[in-house]
Amino acid sequence: MDHFADDSDDDLPTLEESFQVALGGGGRTLRPQRDKGKGKAVEPSGSGHKEAGRRALGRPRDRGKGKVKAKATSYSWEANYKRSWDAVQEDESGGLAGAVKSFLDAAKRRRTAAEASPVQRGIIRHLVLILDLSEAMTDKDLRPNRYDLTLQYAREFVAEYFDQNPIGQLGILATRDGVAEKVVSMGGNTVEHVQALANKRKWEPRGEPSLQNALEMARSSIAHLPSSNSREILLIFGSLTTCDPGNIHDTISALARDGVRVSVVSIAAELKVLKDLSKHTHGRFGVALNEGHFRDLIFEAVPPPELEASDAMDARAMRKRRRTATQLNNEGVDGGSNAEDEEDDDEFYDGTDLLSMGFPTLLPFITASKATLCSCHSKFRSGPAFLCARCGAKLCDVPTDCPVCGLTAVMSTHLARSYHHLFPVSGYKAIRWADVDADSPPACFSCNVSFPERSKDDADVDGHLQGQAQGSSADGYAASSRYRCPKCNNHFCIECDTFVHDTLHVCPGCC
């Protein structure tokens, strides 16, 4: 077969085509061909090799319409920039103060906009706070670092916990160097807990944490409590590893069997063992995104958790086992009588258990100034003290369980402050500018501060804030700064709304 030389440059393959065909174009390499008869080098023809090059590159055949444009490839660095600051709108004066205020008010509204309905909760709480004090807590992804920020939020959590749960108990544990250490024993004294967390030198982070040792120590301190008391653990974990002496899944099964609810706040990342721990024990799990989100996750444990149907069944089964064991010890094994007593007990215990409580007597100042034996610490102490209503033992602080007779000593104000968890204040409804008319009140019912007046651009701002600042209208933010109580129909500002639901727990208009 003869080959004809083509001196035109148009038929020569380009460098890109030659390289692509040599690498992956069917194993063929474009090379000069030699004439068998004359030994002359002949250039490849443009009709065959250029078409093979196009097929190797995946290009369509040129049919006389000019050069074919290569298919555009989309990469992340080639996409358009999404500038979040474009969504912020200026106010009438040209500043951003109005936009910033709307975002701050929206964050406050998220905590109070949830619909509150009466549910069964365990107000007599026993919570164990476990802090990860390993070497990973020295990282500075949270300012100033994980360790300092965790201690600061822990102190704030202790104060808020005892303020919202006056008849609850709290204990603090720490894990480092592969072991678990007790920071504060289970008790109800806010000052002791805050002072223990303020000692940074004593609890400097080091080594690796031990999740299993910390959970076992916490379980041993609350597993023996009666079913009427809630048993909870709040774990703040910052490491990606754990140094355990045994199988951690056995500990998780034991916690679930004892009815201990474990909530986890992870600082570093989502770990499967932590998520399984919270899932099997019906607790919460969250990963902190920033400093504010970290605080919100911790403070979710302040209100008592809702009791599920499974919790009630487990409590009833536990009471049944204890009654059966008591009958066997006192009366011996008697099938007929025990069966009848068990039926009577089941019929009687269908409701909630009754709990014995006593109101202690406050000692006069003259008597309290003298050092007397304290039953709580077994030491001679002076200062404010109480006398147990049943046995008369001296108690340093209330609420607490009497060490002598076991009676729960509380004050009437403690019960009143714990009552609002069972019957919370209904969430206020946001009022849009379209619902504001001439008959609407001009000022807040509680603080008597005047509401802002409506401007010509409020319709656009209202819709923008609903979509941008909150993300959805379900969050319940109102650009009019008006919120209405569904019972008394009075209007309140955002500050009073937050104060009523977070601190006061009583609607001023419904009183």
From TrEMBL:
Protein keywords = DNA damage, DNA repair, Metal-binding, Nucleus, Transcription, Transcription regulation, Zinc, Zinc-finger
The compartments listed are: Nucleus
Q: Does the keyword Metal-binding apply?
A: yes
Cross-referenced Pfam families: C1_4, Ssl1
Gene Ontology CC = transcription factor TFIIH core complex; transcription factor TFIIH holo complex
* Gene Ontology MF annotations: zinc ion binding
Database matches in Gene3D superfamilies: von Willebrand factor, type A domain, Zinc/RING finger domain, C3HC4 (zinc finger)
- Major subcellular site: nucleus
Q: Where do the record's region annotations for Disordered lie?
A: 1-69, 321-345
Q: Which residues form the VWFA domain?
A: 126-302
Instruction: Name one process (GO BP) from the record.
Output: regulation of transcription by RNA polymerase II
Q: Bias category Basic and acidic residues: which stretches? A: 32-41, 48-65
ZnF (C4-type) spans are 388-405
Q: Which PROSITE patterns match?
A: VWFA, ZINC_FINGER_C2H2_1
- Give the UniProt family note: Belongs to the GTF2H2 family.
Summarize the protein's role. Answer: Component of the general transcription and DNA repair factor IIH (TFIIH) core complex, which is involved in general and transcription-coupled nucleotide excision repair (NER) of damaged DNA and, when complexed to TFIIK, in RNA transcription by RNA polymerase II.
Q: Which PANTHER family match?
A: GENERAL TRANSCRIPTION FACTOR IIH SUBUNIT 2 (PTHR12695), GENERAL TRANSCRIPTION FACTOR IIH SUBUNIT 2-RELATED (PTHR12695:SF2)
Cross-referenced NCBIfam families: ssl1 (TIGR00622)
UniProt protein name: General transcription and DNA repair factor IIH
